[in-house]
Specification:
Elements (H helix, E strand, L loop, with lengths): L6 E6 L2 E6 L10 H16 L5 E6 L10 H9 L9 H6 L6 H7 L4 E5 L2 E3 L1 H8 L2 E5 L3 E3 L14 H5 L1 H10 L3 E2 H7 L4 E3 L4 H13 L3 H15 L3 H16 L2 H12 L9
Parallel strand pairs: 2-3, 3-4, 4-6, 5-7, 6-9
Antiparallel strand pairs: 1-2, 7-8
Helix pairs in contact: 1-4, 4-5, 10-11
């Protein structure tokens, strides 16, 4: 008897949907799920037929965080746990590599959020290029409540230091409306409209100039970590690169001919 895979991969046209599939654990991340998610992102990055990615969770939640209970179960069973200092924690495992991996995929990624996006689940949501949440979803940087550190790399960049520190130090959740106000997500929508809105955005992005979108991601994310002058120069270089793509040429032709562009993703 085979168990259900922890990550479901479904391709429909130009859209690939990745579903975190540990509903009994509210899709908490363990090593297997993390490894499979990183591998699936790598596959999507190289699959020319995939032009947009949707990340979602099965069951009642998007992702309730890191699977801390797995470590507790291992300890209860007498299994030794590795002792990690700062350097080994960053260099081992996969948890700390999600943000880099999401940024490196040269295609748009949309997080479809329902239920909870707590801890590591919040980080997955932040690592996505867009996030659309059901209005009854809850988002929290709960790390401090478990005596661990997380969320410090992304959260201050997206909502500012004071608001980030409020979430990081308290661990208190915010509802979807507040999350949209803070800039944690793009939209909070009624639960019964969530799939429709996410699908609409996925189709819109999948019809776009994929290679140019990948270059936009590179310029925007790298630019966050640069001095302003350097980020401007990077944007200029990215513009030149985009102009040499098939979609760049099509965009210019469509503008001159006053018609909608027909992008092919190259």
């Amino acid at each position: 008897m085979t168990s259900e895979p922890v990550l479901l991969v479904e391709k429909s046209g130009a859209i690939c949907t990745l579903t975190l599939n540990r509903p009994e654990a509210l899709n908490a991340l363990n090593k297997e799920l993390g490894d499979r998610l990183l591998a699936a992102l790598e596959d999507c990055a190289h699959d020319e037929e995939v032009r947009a990615i949707v990340l979602r969770g099965a069951g009642r939640a998007f992702c309730a965080g890191d699977d801390i209970r797995a470590g507790a179960r291992a300890a209860a069973a007498g299994q030794p746990l590795p002792r990690r200092d700062l350097v080994s924690s960053v260099r081992s495992g996969n948890y700390f590599h999600f943000a880099q991996a999401f940024r490196a995929v040269p295609k748009p990624i949309i997080a479809r959020v329902h239920g909870f996006a707590y801890g590591a689940g919040m980080d997955l949501m932040l690592a996505s290029d867009m996030a659309i949440a059901a209005s009854d979803a809850r988002i929290a940087a709960v790390f401090v409540r478990s005596g661990i550190i997380g969320g410090t790399a992304q959260l201050p960049r997206y909502i500012g230091l004071k608001r980030a520190m409020e979430m990081l130090l308290s661990g208190e959740p915010v509802d979807a409306a507040r999350a949209a106000e803070l800039g944690l997500i793009n939209y909070a929508v009624p639960p019964d409209q969530l799939d429709t809105v996410v699908q609409g955005w996925a189709e819109k992005l999948a019809d776009g100039p994929t290679r140019i979108m990948g270059t936009i991601k590179l310029a925007a994310y790298r630019g966050l970590d640069m001095h302003f002058e350097d980020s401007v120069m990077l944007a200029a270089a990215a513009t030149g690169e985009a102009s040499r793509t098939d979609d760049g040429a099509e965009g210019r032709r469509a503008f001159i001919e006053k018609r909608p562009p027909k992008f092919v993703g190259r």
